[in-house]
Amino acid sequence: MELVERYVEAVKQYLPDEKKDEISREIRATLLDEVDAMGPTCSTAQVNQLLASWGAPRKVATQFAPPVPLVAQELMPIYWVILKSALSVFFAIHAVVTGLSLLSAEGVGVISFVLKLGLGFVDTALWIFAVVTLVFFAISNDSPLKATLSQMEWSVDKLPVQNAKWQHIKGGDIATDLATAIFLIALVQPSLWMSQKMMESMHIAFLPVVQEWFMPATMLFAVSIVFSLWQALTPFWSKSKLIANIAINLAYVAMFTGLAWLPEVFSVTGESLPFYLADEIVNRNAKVVSMVFIALNGFLIIRDLRRIRSLKVG
Questions:
Q1: What is the pLDDT of residues 120-131, one digit of tens each?
Q2: SS3 of 205, please?
Q3: Mean pLDDT within 90-114
Q4: In this structure, are residues 266 and 283 in contact, taking their beta carbons and an 8 Å threshold?
Q5: Secondary structure (DSSP) of 123-134
Q6: Rounded distance, CA 239 to CA 242, Å?
């Protein structure tokens, strides 16, 4: 029938070239069978109603030949973890660079920091999204790495024993922990990414007594990064992961307790600085931040101890 042929040709326009003939034949045969089922007295109005029930040609074409996504469906969980981790890490680094560059100039302001941070990170975020997506697009094209990544998260003999819903580690939590560790490394090791001239122009600097802790602190942050990568590869809380997390958090509690115990952490130099960069306020805020980290890590230690006790199998 003419209406059926016109409908099939409309659908055909949205089909991929290599599948046009095969799918159009299938659609035509199905429609003609449905028309025949209506009987010899089938009217044009009934055919119109039948085609309308099928829906728009573009929609039908999509159902028969779904568009191929840029990233394979089985790789999406890994893709999102890597993308969020990369964005979090580079945002943390960008925040440090922006903050320190503004602190090296007179008349620094909160509005200036927020504007420079937000507008400056947009370009970086777009590059990160493009690079990560292109890499996974290349992997998705039936590459050997696609099969490896698809099977990386599990094997039959290593299936975890799940006793509680909390045992699944969320990708957002991994990305946050990873970004925090890298941020702290950038904070205590500015020589890795700052010029000597820029470091000398800073209005705020750690006191020598604090700088003595930089090397062990950097090692702790590096361990945190490795631990986050371990979590990303196997995002499931086990007894061994909980014990490792307790040990890391205990080290953080010890480090921040030492900072909170010191009368001063920073030295502030320069004139015409905003009131919130006054020596007394900066050091008081450093003590408050240290106490917050102590409380947070203490809570995580207690939480993990309870989780270990609730696990039937480690």
A1: 788 888 988 998
A2: strand
A3: 64
A4: yes
A5: HHHHHHHHHHHH
A6: 5
